[in-house]
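In the design runs reported in the main text, the only information available to the sequence generator was the tokenized backbone. The following block is the verbatim input for one such run; it is reproduced so that readers can re-run the procedure and compare outputs position by position.
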């Protein structure tokens, strides 16, 4: 029996003795104890995880970066075939373990819905892989040139609590297809399930193609571990998926950053829309994972002419209306303007209610809805907290507007220039065009739920990192490459 087999048996036994939390994990030093920026080293013996440790899970940024550098060097030797194999492994593991991992993520984060957590893991099958990398060739009197897509190296991936494993897995597929390795700094609220997935991916990647530590993760992520990754000379690129705070931090770090930032997607329903379909679509998108999607419908502007009819259609399709009093009670629970909570001039979201179920939200408003209800709604004006803030709750404010001009203007204002996602329900092509031109959102869905913008019911591929702030759009392997030109002068121009 070789030493690696013994190491795996010991890891398995320790893990069982500790109910899944291994001994090394519980005694790990906090990652606040960051050492100076990492050196690049490729000593293969240096970064084997200690016995009983999960593969790829490290206590600090420096060791995680150094191990991922080894993973990167090993991947280079395996060529495109190796990358494609990793993509296949990650996709097939996400599909095979969707039920188990979806449950683990829900139990850890306590937000969202199990059916959608499972569905998101299956959706990873539609993330593009190595086939996306297309070189560009030029031939002429002076020979030939080829522009190719090269990896950056080691990428630090910062992932959100709203889709911890799906974002991590989607990033791995995109980044490894492009030839990179990854160090993840997950949201602390979803760090355990992310570490579990990293360990599982690494074990299978090693079993099938012999690469260790292609993906590493910081066991107990902190703001300090994020700073250490930003400062590390071993990190070649940052990719952050999250809200305004992390985007700002990444963009002021001095490292190149691809930023998949926040949104607050508005929906417009005009007078020529199919109201029953619009109602069903808004429930599909706004209720998805209890409205945790960054692309999810967050507020709806409806033309006065069809407002009452739309509300009837919304109720018929299963959405439950809160009264003005119930909305007021829920709003006071969902937001605070207290100075202590950092509010004051700006309402602050009560994170305890993010991704909560409609039953819980209704009860906080003093209402009762049947178990299994998908979505709540309430009539508000355009300045209401539920309209202006990215609330990530299955409670959608509906706003009555005079005409399409006012609908588009208020939709644009409520999106706050994030240029993330927007939806319209109409058969009027001119209205579609005007809204698309006015909002300039990265994703613009006409006559469908938001998820159609990520290939779920619409055409196209998916990624859980939509680079809105920095403009790369729905990320693909191409996003994580450097373009390089290779020139041969006065030869091989055989055309
Ligand atoms: P979050 O901003 O609280 O956390 C995201 C990540 O950033 C986490 O890993 C967190 O630990 C880290 N982080 C947060 N503040 C930081 C700071 N100041 N310095 C360093 N790191 C920091 O977001 P969340 O609640 O996990 O996720 C929801 C947010 O993410 C929403 O705003 C949503 O729109 C956005 N999001 C965007 C996309 C996209 O593709 N554009 C996808 C998913 C989520």
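Verbatim output:
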């Amino acid at each position: 029996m070789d030493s690696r087999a013994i190491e795996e048996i010991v890891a398995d036994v320790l893990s069982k003795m500790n109910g899944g939390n291994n001994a090394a994990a519980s005694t790990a030093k906090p990652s606040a104890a960051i050492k100076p920026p990492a050196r690049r080293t490729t000593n293969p013996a240096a970064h084997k995880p200690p016995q009983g440790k999960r593969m790829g899970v490290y206590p600090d940024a420096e060791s995680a970066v150094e191990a991922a550098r080894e993973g990167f060097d090993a991947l280079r030797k395996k060529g495109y075939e190796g990358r494609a194999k990793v993509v296949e492994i990650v996709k097939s593991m996400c599909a095979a373990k969707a039920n188990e991992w979806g449950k683990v993520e829900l139990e850890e984060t306590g937000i969202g819905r199990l059916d959608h957590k499972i569905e998101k893991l299956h959706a990873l099958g539609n993330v593009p892989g190595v086939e996306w990398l297309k070189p560009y060739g030029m031939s002429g009197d002076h020979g030939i040139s080829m522009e190719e897509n090269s990896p950056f190296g080691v990428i630090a991936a910062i992932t959100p609590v709203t889709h911890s494993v799906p974002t991590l897995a989607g990033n791995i597929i995109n980044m490894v297809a492009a030839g990179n390795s990854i160090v993840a700094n997950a949201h602390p609220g979803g760090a355990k399930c992310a570490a579990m997935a990293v360990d599982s991916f690494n074990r299978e990647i090693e079993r099938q193609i012999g690469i260790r530590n292609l993906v590493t993760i910081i066991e107990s992520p902190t703001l300090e571990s994020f700073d250490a990754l930003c400062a590390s000379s071993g990190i070649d690129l940052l990719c952050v998926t999250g809200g305004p705070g992390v985007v700002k931090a990444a963009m002021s770090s001095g490292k190149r950053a691809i930023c998949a930032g926040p949104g607050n997607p508005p929906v417009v329903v005009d007078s020529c829309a199919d109201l029953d379909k619009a109602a069903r679509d808004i429930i599909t998108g706004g209720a998805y994972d209890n409205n945790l999607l960054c692309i999810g419908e967050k507020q709806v502007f409806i033309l006065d002419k069809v407002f009452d009819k739309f509300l009837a259609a919304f109720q018929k399709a299963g959405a439950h209306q809160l009264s003005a009093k119930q909305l007021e009670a829920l709003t006071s629970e969902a937001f605070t303007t207290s100075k202590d909570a950092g509010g004051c001039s700006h309402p602050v979201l009560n994170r305890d209610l993010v991704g909560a179920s409609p039953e819980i939200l209704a009860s906080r408003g003093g209402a009762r809805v049947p178990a299994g209800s998908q979505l709540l709604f309430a009539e508000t004006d355009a300045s209401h907290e539920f309209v202006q803030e990215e609330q990530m709750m299955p409670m959608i404010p509906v706003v009555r507007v005079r005409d399409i001009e006012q609908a588009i203007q208020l939709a644009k204002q409520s999106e706050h220039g994030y240029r993330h996602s927007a939806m319209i329900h109409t058969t009027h092509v001119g209205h579609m065009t005007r809204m698309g031109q006015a909002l300039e959102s990265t994703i613009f869905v006409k006559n469908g739920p938001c998820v159609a913008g990520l290939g779920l019911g619409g055409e196209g591929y998916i990624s859980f990192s939509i680079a809105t702030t920095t403009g790369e759009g729905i990320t693909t392997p191409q996003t994580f490459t450097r373009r390089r030109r290779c020139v041969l002068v006065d030869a091989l121009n055989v055309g």
